[in-house]
Design brief:
Helix content: 25-40%
Radius of gyration: 21 Å
CATH class of the largest domain: Alpha Beta
Order of helices and strands: HHHHHEEEHEHEHEHEHEHEHHHHHEHEE
Strand content: 5-15%
Distance between the termini: 58 Å
CATH topology of the largest domain: Rossmann fold
Largest sheet: 9 strands, mixed
């Protein structure tokens, strides 16, 4: 049983698992969601063997830099989260739980908590494949995502994607139409109604697959929640398939994170003169594997996962053609302007709308986040790595997010081996 199974109104206060969960909720609230600082605090709890103790005991035994912010988190916050999860059939798995995917522990700062709806499989034993691409997907890109997911899911591959519009939608749709298993990783809380046009898709995924988030139930999406969630998609999978990607596509971030984790990166080649394939072809130039047809993936994993999928089943007579619809029936729904700020811990019933352009598009260096400006101004050489920025005073996660933002702004570009190169800046 996972910790999520004990998230009920009638808590067993003598159960170590209850204290572990409550303490990790405190850590998450005090030090930020999915940050390196939160993970450092967790390791301190673990090393001192106090993770299972009551909050006051933990407070007395923590180093000063962790103790005060930890203890300042009100108990009512923990209770509200747990009651909210219980009322909405949301399970919680923590990093201490046996159900927690071991693949996530490969990350530099793995999420302390996973909130999920549906069936969480033993993903470590399965050839799960992540399929990514742009939100403004072409018909060819949509067909690629759909047919790839359909064939793989029919054979037995779990399909992972981000439950967004565009390529994500078609990847999940293909897996579901094949009767397969799919996992949607969200960049917000499971109860936040982001992209309402996908509400039915999310419901279907939670019933036939699994919806996952590292964020509390009503946590709103923000500037960096999507790049941060990409690391979970990359870590859970054995490989990432990019169906199409422009030079600033978020799919490139997922692919790079997968490569950093020594995962396979597959790319559908495209016309080099078209914008939607410039990022894709760049990945191929960096060493990604060309994806011509589904057999390119089957051949990679046949030796290790031969007992987990059936190739013959993938190529048996299917209803692929009648199922495919482009554009998606719900793709024309428009959103209104978002609020200027988003509090991840705002549990009000008001659900504010968000424009994708507010998350992904920036017009100038002046419009960068504070962290991205710090990193950009700190760079003093043309070719550099993340290690060269450690003296900037930012945490590891803040540096990673800043680098992602700068890459999306085309101010830097990623190079093989974990290096980056400035696109334009005078080096004094």
């Amino acid at each position: 049983m996972g910790i999520g199974k004990i998230v009920m109104l009638d808590y067993n206060y003598k159960d170590d698992k209850f204290y572990i969960l409550r303490n990790l909720l405190r850590v998450q609230r005090a030090f930020g969601i999915g940050t390196a600082k939160a993970y450092e605090a967790y390791k301190t709890l673990k090393e001192r063997d106090i993770i299972h103790c009551d909050a006051y005991t933990v407070y007395k035994m923590l180093p000063e830099k962790f103790a005060k912010p930890f203890y300042n988190v009100k108990r009512e916050y923990n209770d509200r989260i747990m009651n909210m999860c219980s009322a909405n059939r949301i399970n919680i798995v923590c990093i201490e739980d046996e159900e927690y995917p071991k693949r996530l522990k490969e990350l530099y700062s793995p999420p302390l908590l996973l909130y999920y709806k549906g069936n969480l499989p033993d993903i470590d034993k399965l050839p799960a494949l992540c399929i990514v691409g742009p939100r403004k997907v072409t018909e060819f890109g949509a067909k690629s995502a759909y047919s790839l997911a359909f064939r793989l899911a029919r054979a037995g591959f779990p399909i992972i994607s981000g439950a967004a519009v565009g390529s994500d939608y078609y990847a999940h749709r293909g897996a579901l139409d094949a009767g397969g298993f799919t996992i949607g990783v969200l960049g917000c809380g499971l109860l936040y109604d982001y992209l309402p046009q996908n509400a039915q898709l999310r419901k279907e995924i939670s019933e036939k697959g699994c919806l996952i988030s590292e964020y509390p139930p009503f946590c709103q999406p923000g500037k960096f929640t999507f790049p941060v969630r990409n690391r979970i998609m990359a870590a859970l999978s054995v490989g990432v398939a990019v169906t199409e990607a422009g030079e600033s596509s978020g799919a490139l971030n997922t692919a790079h994170q997968a490569a950093d984790l020594n995962k396979d990166v597959f790319v559908v080649p495209g016309n080099p003169t078209l914008e939607q394939y410039k990022g894709s072809n760049k990945l191929l130039r960096e060493g990604a594997l060309p994806l011509i047809d589904t057999s390119d993936i089957f051949n990679c994993y046949l030796a290790e996962y031969a007992d987990k999928f059936n190739v013959e089943k993938a190529f048996s007579k299917s209803e692929l053609a009648p199922k495919f619809v482009y554009p998606a029936p719900n793709s024309r729904i428009k959103r209104t302007s978002p609020a200027k700020t988003h509090d991840p811990y705002d549990f009000s019933d008001k659900k504010e709308d968000i424009k994708l352009s507010d998350i992904f598009e920036k017009k100038s260096v002046k419009s960068l986040s504070k962290e991205a400006q710090i990193v950009y101004n700190y760079i003093d050489k043309r070719k550099f790595s993340a290690d060269d920025i450690l003296g900037s005073g930012l945490s590891d996660d803040e540096i990673l997010s800043a680098l992602t933002e700068l890459e999306m702004e085309k101010l830097i570009k990623a190079l093989p081996g974990g290096f980056y190169e400035l696109s334009d800046k005078e080096i004094v």
